[in-house]
Amino acid sequence: MPQTHSLTLTGPTGLRLRVLALGGIVAALEVPDGAGGHVDVTVGVPDTEAARADTHYRGALVGRVANRIRLGQAPLDGRTLALTANHGPHHLHGGAIGLHRRAWTLAPFTAPHETGVTLSATVPDGEDGYPGTLVVRVTYALDDAGAFTVTWQAESDAPTPWAPTQHVYWNLAGRGEITGHTLQVDADAVLAIDAAQLPTGARVPVDGTPFDVRRAAPIGPRLGDPALAATHGLDHTFVLRDGARHAARLADPATGRTLTITTSEPALHAYTGNHLAGAPAAGGGVLPAHAGIALETGGFPDAPNHPGFPPIVLRPGAPARSWTRFALGVAGQEKA
After folding, report:
1. Could you tell me the pTM of the whole model?
2. Per residue of the chain (336 residues), what is the pLDDT tens digit?
3. For the stretch 23-59, what's the b/e string if a residue is b when 16 or more beta carbons lie within 10 angstroms of its beta carbon?
4. Which member of 56, 90, 93, 167 is catalytic?
5. For this structure, is 56 an active site residue?
6. Which of 14, 32, 165, 218 could join 296 in a cystine, given CB atoms 3.0 to 4.6 angstroms apart?
7. In this structure, how many other beta carbons lie within 10 angstroms of the beta carbon of residue 114?
8. Catalytic residue status for 177
């Protein structure tokens, strides 16, 4: 059977999802615009060729471990793994190949209340320095409540670090910058970072800081805060409240569109696309600054080097499963 390089799905409520086999990339997620058309609310890529050239992980599956690992060194069961250094001296988003450069097998499905696709891949032992042959299945599902759900399942034949994410950039307006969007996150603390944007191990209360978005607040005014000068905007990990499945809510007051995120994961990394300016846009031309916001659910960055962080080791005989649900709606009309 020939390899499927991309496919487009239409969900029960009219959501349209375009997926590339390369990287499991969400190339577009379009919502009905109320006038018979659709609007892409992600900052996607036009095709596989553009995806190969992209350096921003737009829409990609990311892992084995998302975010940074200091110097590519990860202690594991009495030894130290030497992972690919692909971000200066550090390891970023799974390495040079990771999940984002892999060709996934796509298998569409239809169920009573949803339409979706299962993405499958086998990652060989030793790739990017990670031990164990890893078998991964990811499900993208569009349901009859207007949500897009990402479910991860993974197993390994040897202990290996495992903390992936889905790296969609959101822009509920469909174009322009997300500075007019509002963001709310259920987090009382963020992880402190050093000059290399690696965690120090400390958790900093959000009170009195630009990270206090426990109530919805405009994104734009925060981007110029001196506390964000080193990162040129948000590029920080929020520690989600224990037991809280509701993680965040993004809204665009101009269109009324909303995005509500629930998850099984302990953290949410918010990145306001601080380096997207000038990147090729899916519809032609180039992207402006802060063209989208990535809201990456997952584990804590650099977790192997911080015993106080939740562990991220996947062990043989104990498959991992996690999920994140992105519910799209209109203010005042959201469905559960």
Report:
1. 0.96
2. 457 799 999 999 999 999 999 999 999 999 998 888 999 999 999 888 889 999 999 999 999 999 999 999 999 999 999 999 999 999 999 999 999 999 999 999 999 999 999 999 999 999 999 999 999 999 999 999 999 999 999 999 999 999 999 999 999 999 999 999 999 999 999 999 999 999 999 999 999 999 999 999 999 999 999 999 999 999 999 999 987 789 999 999 999 999 999 999 999 999 999 999 999 999 889 999 999 999 999 999 999 999 999 999 999 999 999 999 999 999 767 665
3. bbbbbbbbbeeeeeebbbbbbbbeebebbeebebbbb
4. 167
5. no
6. 165
7. 19
8. no
